[in-house]
Structure prediction request, 78 residues.
Amino acid sequence: MKCYVCAKQGVDEKAVAICIICGMGLCLGHVFKEELLVRDVIDWGFGEEKIAYPKTLPRFICAECKLAMEQRKRVEKK
Ligand SMILES: [Zn+2]
Ligand SMILES: [Zn+2]
Prediction:
């Protein structure tokens, strides 16, 4: 697969990753790597415990999807 962003600009560049959301092939220069927290809510019976584990899930994403996700995070904060 080739990098979609590079291909659009007429550049021939191999893809090293694929955007998990839209499936676009991306080169090292165009891929974004995000770390997702692995969380659990455990119900102990006398209360809930929220846990965020130390190891995160890597997620490869393109610039367009990153923008789309970030706009959503901003909305959720309100
Ligand atoms: Zn590229
Ligand atoms: Zn994408």
